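User: quick one, sequence for these tokens?
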């Protein structure tokens, strides 16, 4: 069946991306400071947050594979999206309940693990729906819009959390933001809103967005053959390896931002110092997302108009350079400028890299397999969470709790990824 560009489908997927970003941002914005109430160890906190990466290594790959072959009147992707969205919303409410009831660290960690599992149930299916429904020449534009709404979801959550912390501080007189928030009824608000978005968006896509007719798969490859084919195809292998590197760079900052801020501004990342920079961290996350929005839409357009290689490399370099500067940063102003510039590069990089797998599958006439290949796409985004959480925490401890070292290390990883993209043979595609 011929694919036609449909703004209603793109906006439906963008809404789903918005809700998922709100969920992941809740995790990024509040999990680290809440875990700091249990322990000051960077390694322990990083390891718990890295569970997301461990789960993401397997669940998207397996469920993406099986969604390709699913034949039902409900579609291939939408059943996973509905189940995953509802469970994710429930998991968010469980995280708040566990913390407010004062469960021990292992109990709080288990609720986070259930949230990560629920979110990854439909990660590959959400990603696969875009190339399923949009032809190759328009995927950059669609990716730009979807990326725009995804990062708008981040901005919404970080802005909401920052506003609530400011109100809690004024109400309680407590200097530490997260501690003030925990003393007021405001703590439940971001969790309730996130659950509403996750469940609502999943139901919206299930009942409103129509999937195209599933293509016939004459010779369905086994799971082992599918994984083998990725290793044998150099273009897929280069892209997945490059994405692993630049996402690890991102996760170094995303996971340990509060520790980085506390170390740069106060000289150490103690519980008190981390809680003292919570408001600033949320503000900087919001700023980063604003500049990601500025880079996302033109990044998608550049992908379709300027070319795949050049747009990806441009985004990567813009993202890496402020991190090299990060080793010398010592003030709030410098941190703000660096993260703002990095956000523009990250927006270009995200919008330019999302359509690559779909275009490669079109090139090699394997569009029936978008679920499994986007499942592996998500695994190479999850592996960095696992590696960055564990290795980042270990590196920080080996460096004498010097969180600043993560900046130049992240820059090196991004710059190592760029030659892999540049030397992909089949990256460029027909213009629509």
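Assistant:
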């Amino acid at each position: 069946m011929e694919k036609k560009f449909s703004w209603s489908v793109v906006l439906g997927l963008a809404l789903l991306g918005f809700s998922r970003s709100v969920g992941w941002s809740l995790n990024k914005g509040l999990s680290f400071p809440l875990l700091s109430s249990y322990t000051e160890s960077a390694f322990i906190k990083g390891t718990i947050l890295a569970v997301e990466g461990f789960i993401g290594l397997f669940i998207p790959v397996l469920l993406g594979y099986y969604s390709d072959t699913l034949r039902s009147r409900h579609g291939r992707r939408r059943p996973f999206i509905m189940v995953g969205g509802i469970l994710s919303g429930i998991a968010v409410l469980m995280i708040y309940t566990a913390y407010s009831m004062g469960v021990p660290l292992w109990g709080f960690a288990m609720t986070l693990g259930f949230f990560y599992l629920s979110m990854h149930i439909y990660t590959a299916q959400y990603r696969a729906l875009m190339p399923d429904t949009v032809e190759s020449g328009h995927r950059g534009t669609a990716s730009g819009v979807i990326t725009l709404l995804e990062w708008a979801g981040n901005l919404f959550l970080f802005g909401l959390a920052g506003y609530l912390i400011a109100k809690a501080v004024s109400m309680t007189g407590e200097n530490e933001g997260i501690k003030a928030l925990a003393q007021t009824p405001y703590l439940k608000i971001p969790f309730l809103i996130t659950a509403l978005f996750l469940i609502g968006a999943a139901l919206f896509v299930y009942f409103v967005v129509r999937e195209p007719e599933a293509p016939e798969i004459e010779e369905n490859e086994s799971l082992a053959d599918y994984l083998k084919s990725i290793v044998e195809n150099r273009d897929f292998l280069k892209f997945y390896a490059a994405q692993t590197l630049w996402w690890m760079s991102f996760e170094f900052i995303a996971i340990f931002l509060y520790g980085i801020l506390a170390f740069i501004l106060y000289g150490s990342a103690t519980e008190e110092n981390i809680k003292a920079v919570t408001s600033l961290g949320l503000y900087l996350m919001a700023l980063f997302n604003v500049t990601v929005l500025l880079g996302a839409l033109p990044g998608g357009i550049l992908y379709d108009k300027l070319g795949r290689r050049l747009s990806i490399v441009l985004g990567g370099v813009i993202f890496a350079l402020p991190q090299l500067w990060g080793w010398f940063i010592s003030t709030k102003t410098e941190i703000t400028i660096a993260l703002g510039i990095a956000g523009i590069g990250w927006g270009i990089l995200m919008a330019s890299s999302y359509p690559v797998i779909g275009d490669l599958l079109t090139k090699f006439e394997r569009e029936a397999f978008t679920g499994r290949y986007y499942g592996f796409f998500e695994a190479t985004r999850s592996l960095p969470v696992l590696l960055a959480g564990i290795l980042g925490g270990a590196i920080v401890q080996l460096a004498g709790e010097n969180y600043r070292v993560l900046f130049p290390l992240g820059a090196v990883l991004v710059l190592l990824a760029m030659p892999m993209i540049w030397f992909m043979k089949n990256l460029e595609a027909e213009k629509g």
